[in-house]
Amino acid sequence: MTVVTVQGIAEREVYSWRLTACPRSVARWRRVAAETVAMLGGDQDAVALARLGLSELLSNVVKHVADRRCLLVIAAEGENLRVTVQDRSVEVPAVMNPRTDEECGRGLWLLREMAKDLGYICFPGGKAVWFRCPLVRGSEGSVCAPRGGE
Asked: Which CATH number belongs to the domain containing residue 94 in this structure?
């Protein structure tokens, strides 16, 4: 595993890796994300959400993108953490409100409920899907608790 980019810009520290998403590598990238978030000063909630969210984003690349080469970016932006996966598909992600009896379709919905922000941006030849959360739990409560409840 090679770190492609390490940047330290005022109030921003960025790490990125080029990888090919595959089912057997998701656990390894979850560990990389956990180590990176902890190194950036993230608390256990930020580490847990980074692991969960990255699993969802990489799994979506595996399931929905023909060319699985992608770019993982983990950045500290002031008091926040941003995790981004850029892939080579222009198909926009769909956040569904799953019924209780459905077996799939919960991942992005759950991530949206747990993260401070979830979004995407399209560009020629692909898109970037990202989520953001506090590096350290503050007055907002636990990062891992869904918004609007416990």
From this structure: 3.30.565.10
Count CB-CB contacts under 10 A for residue 141. 12
Determine the pLDDT at residue 35.
97
Model-wide pTM > 0.85: no
Number of domains in the chain: 1
- Residue 66: C-alpha distances to residues 91, 95, 126 (Å): 11, 20, 12
Q: Which residues form the domain of 74?
A: 5-134
Residue listed under structure tokens 């692909």? 126
For residue 147, being part of any structural domain is answered with: no
